[in-house]
Amino acid sequence: MTELLAVVALLGSGVTAGVLFAVALSVLPALFAMEPGTYVHAHQLLGRNWDPTMPVIVLGSCLATGVLAVLSEGGGGAQPLFGAAAVLLLGVSGVSHLANVPINRRVKAIADPSQLPADWEDPRPLWQRWHLLRTTLAVLALGVTAWAVLLL
Hints:
- By secondary structure, the protein is mostly helical.
- 83% of the residues lie in helices and 0% in strands.
- It contains four helices and no strands.
């Protein structure tokens, strides 16, 4: 059981870190290069498949690492590392749900990207800051999870 959970934890945290890193490295610079209306349209298209998928991956990984924190025994040091990884993944989820998702909803609520509201404020800088925080948390979670698996 521990081995299967370790694989799930590594896969999930790896996918989470990889996706968020790819968005930071490639997608965000492309979105910043776009005119506002084009950006809104692209943003509306980009999240269609990720929005329902990423919470399952992140929270599933968090659950797997949390269970490993409870099941791991011995003096190898894996137990606190799995606990730390679970907290880091919970942080990824928290930043996503409390910061990035509300911004996504505002962008998706724009009916016509070619006619932005007069009071529209470009959310890209704020979205990027929150995204970089959750990316950092995800990469740390992956590293800590890998370290913990090595100690099993």
